[in-house]
Design brief:
This protein is α+β, with helices and mostly antiparallel strands and 107 residues long. Helices cover 23% and strands 34% of the residues.
């Protein structure tokens, strides 16, 4: 089975508000208002797919999910590199599609 390794970053001149919007849209965010009285979660793109985050800007996911991430990176004019990698049998997390929106959380 093959997967996609994606290395990405936003250009250095990117404004902080754009960076935050990018991160929230990709990974999601838990938020509170009124000093913790209300809690809610903003859904991120990666929350609906199985992935593994290695470090800042480096993720491994199934090949069929790479096109969706690529279009998101293009939307924000991010710099990226996508490579096809061979997944080992012990990478069982990528063998099945997650059920009930259970995804691999970054370690």
């Amino acid at each position: 089975m093959h997967g996609s390794l994606i290395v990405f970053r936003l250009p250095p001149e990117t404004e902080n508000r754009i960076m935050l919007k990018f991160i929230r849209g990709l990974y999601g965010q838990d938020s509170t208002s009124w000093h913790g009285k209300y809690e809610y979660h903003r859904q991120g793109l990666l929350e609906n797919i199985t992935y593994k985050k290695f470090t800042k800007g480096v993720i491994l996911l199934r090949m069929e999910d790479a096109a969706m991430i690529k279009s998101y990176l293009d939307k924000f004019e991010a710099w990226y590199y996508i490579s096809t990698v061979e997944l080992r049998p012990e990478d069982e997390i990528f063998q099945e599609v997650p059920s009930n929106n259970i995804v691999a959380k970054p370690s």
